[in-house]
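F.,

This is the one I mentioned.
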């Protein structure tokens, strides 16, 4: 405990260069007498720390003192700070203190030039709380129970052994060993609710090297040819690979792609409204037209 407190004092002095004994005592929840004993211990260890009386005084480090940073180049230091900022953006709280200490250690200013935010627009406290629970379950190797909604809307209660959080395709996913299926599964965090970190320790398992959703039984893909209006270009560029897109002279975008043939595909195509025309296959033109007619009928009644 004492060694931890000594490092805390040292890092604070590196950051602020001078601080009063009262400030240190309040922050570290010890007496001022203990702080002065700690200062003596630092001095005995060769740290050039001293006390200065009077107005503007306090406990100080000699101006020329800098902790050894020679093992890391300036570029490497910047990479470490960037990585910590990215980790902090995922919802981790403990990394903030580490980032602050290393910023002081490396003597960097203006580290706020970059902001990394993995959350969706309008996301609230519930989503951040879910992320924190998943992270806790992974780090403590404890089972995680939750209610899950599949892409088809099926609702089920799962207990899984969480292994890895992955940010892919603009979304957070959990790679976990599902106790119900007795196999590895991929869960999208946005479809998880009522999360509970259970007691016990998960057995050691090696997760799959790549995050791939298993194809459901009876999986069937469909080759689609789609034409998008120029006004949909920004969404098309977000969802489709450049090699799948061909631009026509009038500005429309032709897309040749393959998707799993399920209810999600219908919802995805309908989301483009009048900006999309399905060119082939013909039966998908008919299915889409049928869904649009049903929607029109709702508004007529």
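My design for it:
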């Amino acid at each position: 405990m004492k060694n931890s407190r000594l490092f805390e004092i040292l890092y604070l002095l590196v950051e602020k260069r001078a601080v009063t004994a009262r400030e240190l005592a309040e922050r570290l929840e010890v007496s001022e007498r203990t702080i002065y004993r700690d200062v003596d211990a630092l001095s005995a260890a060769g740290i050039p720390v001293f006390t200065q009386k009077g107005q503007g005084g306090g406990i100080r480090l000699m101006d020329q003192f800098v902790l050894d940073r020679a093992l890391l180049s300036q570029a490497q230091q910047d990479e470490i700070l960037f990585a910590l900022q990215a980790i902090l953006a995922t919802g981790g709280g403990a990394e903030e203190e580490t980032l602050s200490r290393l910023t002081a250690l490396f003597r960097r200013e203006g580290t706020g030039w970059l902001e990394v935010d993995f959350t969706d627009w309008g996301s609230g406290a519930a989503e951040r709380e879910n992320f924190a629970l998943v992270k806790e379950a992974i780090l403590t190797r404890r089972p995680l129970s939750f209610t899950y909604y599949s892409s088809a809307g099926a609702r089920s209660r799962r207990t899984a052994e969480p292994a890895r959080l992955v940010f892919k395709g603009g979304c957070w996913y959990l790679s976990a060993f599902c106790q119900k299926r007795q196999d590895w599964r991929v869960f999208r965090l946005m479809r998880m609710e009522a999360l509970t970190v259970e007691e016990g320790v998960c057995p050691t398992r090696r997760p799959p090297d790549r995050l791939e959703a298993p194809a459901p039984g009876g999986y069937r893909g469909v080759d689609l040819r789609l034409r998008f209006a120029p006004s949909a270009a920004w969404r098309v560029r977000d969802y489709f690979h450049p090699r799948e897109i061909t631009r026509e002279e009038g500005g429309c975008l032709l897309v040749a792609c393959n998707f799993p043939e399920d209810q999600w595909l219908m919802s995805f195509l309908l989301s483009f409204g009048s900006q999309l025309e399905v060119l082939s296959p013909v039966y998908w033109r008919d299915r889409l037209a049928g869904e649009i007619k049903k929607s029109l009928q709702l508004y007529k009644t």
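The first strand starts at residue 18 and ends at 19.

Talk soon.
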